[in-house]
Amino acid sequence: MALFPDDEDEVALEHDSGVIFFMTRVTQVVDPATSSSVAAPDDLIAWLGKHPDLGAKPPRSVNVAGLSGRTLVIHTGSREIETFAYVTGNIRMPPDFTAQLYVLPMEGPDLTVIVGSPTKGWDKAVPLAAPVLASLQVGGAG
User: Fold this and answer.
1) Total-model pTM
2) Number of domains in the chain
3) Is 74 buried (19+), middle (13-18) or exposed (0-12) by CB count in 10 A?
4) For residue range 56-73, what is the model confidence (pLDDT) as tens digits?
């Protein structure tokens, strides 16, 4: 089901199991030190990897929809973490949540795909999202 109507920079879907699938073009992030919105860094994967509240595993190379990029897995702890900032509201990673983020270079802001779930159900999340990732087609790749 859609979490909200698609807009120009976000698509968000949720399966009844709690698995989420987001696609977004990140232009602003939430600074973990100040909780304010700042411009997204050029290397979003590096920023996510160094985020003090995301418990990221080392990034690796990936190919999605014909685009070469990088991916990493993050884990939140016991509190909600705001990551990406939007006028309509920030993306929040809930407590005890695991997600795999794919950052794929494109013209303009990179495409970021997020597959996530409560950590307890993480072993089912990636296989459930795999057909969606495999079928993804992206226009305007740069």
Assistant:
1) 0.88
2) 1
3) buried
4) 999 999 999 889 999 999
